[in-house]
Amino acid sequence: MTTIEPKMTQGDDDESRKRRLRSPAYPYINLETAIARAQSFYDREGRNSAPIAVAAVHWNYETKSSAATQTAAALMSFGLMSDEGTGSKRRLKLTQDGLRILIDKRPDSTERTELIKRAALAPKIHQQIWEKWGNEISDSNLRHSLIFEWKPPFNENSVDGFIKEFRDTIGYAKLAGPDKVTEDDGDQATYSPKVGEYVQWESGGVLQFPEPKQLRELSDDGAYGFVDGSHTGLPISQIRRANAPTQEPGPMISPTAPLKTKMQEVAVTLSAGRGVFQWPSSLTKEDILDLIDTLKIVERKISRPVSENSQRDKSE
C-alpha cells in the first residue's frame, strides 16, 4: 500500500524543528526506581556482568526495548552500574557504590545514606542545578530557566519530565541545602572529565591505556570523550582521572594523516569546502560498531549549528 505524505507548510516545518530540539541528557528514571532496577539485577546476577538483553528481561522489558537501553544509561549516570564492550558484546555490571547501597541493610547506616546522596548528584545536570539553586527555586522558575537560559536549552515538551525526575530523586536522597558533591578520586560518580586533563579508560575493571592520554574533546551531549591518538568516543562513565605520564606522549594523529594500512575514502564537495571521511579497508565487526557509534556523534555535531541558527532566527 502506498502512503501519501501530507505536504508540510513553513509553519509545520518550524514546528517539526521545534519538536526535534534535544534536551540535555538526564536520567530516564529517578534514583529510587534506579535502585530498584539495580536490586532486580543483583537478585539474579549478583556481582557478575550480563548482556544488556539479559538485564532487559530482569527489568521486564523486551530484549531490544529502548526503555532497557535508557534504564541502563540512567543506572550508569547515577553511578550504580558500569558497562563494557559495544553492540551485541556490551555487558553491564554493578559498581562498588551500587553494591554497597544494595547490600548494606543496616537501618542506621550513615555510609549508605551518603552513597545515596552522592548517587543523586552524580548526573551532571543534577549536580549543576543543585550547585546553582539547591532547593531554593520553584518549579515554574526552574522550568523557565531551563527553557530560556540553560545552555543548551531544554525542549519545552520534555522539561516537565526532567523536573519531576529531579525533584523525586532529590526528595528520595533527602538532600538538604548544605549537601554538596563530595570529591573522591576513586569514585567516577563525582568526576566530570575536562578537556586537557589526562585520563584513563577503564573497561571491565581493567585500565586499557598503557599510559594516560590527554582528553582533547567532549561530545555535544557530554556522553562521550575523545582522547589524543584515537577517533573513538569513550563513554564518560568509563573515563577515570589520571596523572600525566612521566614522558610526554607522541603527537596526536591527525584525522587526515596518511596511515600505513590501505584506506577507503568518501569525499563530498560542499559550498564551504570539501568534506572527507576515511576508514581502513579491513575492519572487524567491533570496528564497524565503533564507527557507527562515532558517526552518530558526528551527525549530532554537524546538525547542532543548524539547530542553533534556526532557534536564533526564530528569536529574532
Query: DSSP helix count?
Result: 10
How many discrete domains? Answer: 3
Structural class of the secondary structure composition? Answer: alpha+beta
Q: What about the largest sheet?
A: 6 strands, antiparallel
Mind telling me the C-alpha Rg? 22 Å
SSE run: HHEHHEEHHHHHEEEEEEEEH
- Distance linking N and C termini: 43 Å
Secondary structure topology:
Blueprint: H1 10-20, H2 31-45, E1 50-51, H3 52-58, H4 66-77, E2 81-84, E3 91-94, H5 96-103, H6 110-120, H7 124-133, H8 139-148, H9 159-173, E4 198-203, E5 206-207, E6 213-218, E7 224-227, E8 234-235, E9 239-241, E10 263-270, E11 273-280, H10 285-315
Helix pairs in contact: 2-5, 3-4
Would you mind describing this structure in some detail?
The protein has three domains: 143 residues, no CATH class; 49 residues, SH3 type barrels, CATH 2.30.30; 53 residues, no CATH class. It is an alpha+beta fold. The N terminus is likely disordered. The radius of gyration is 22 Å and the shape is globular.
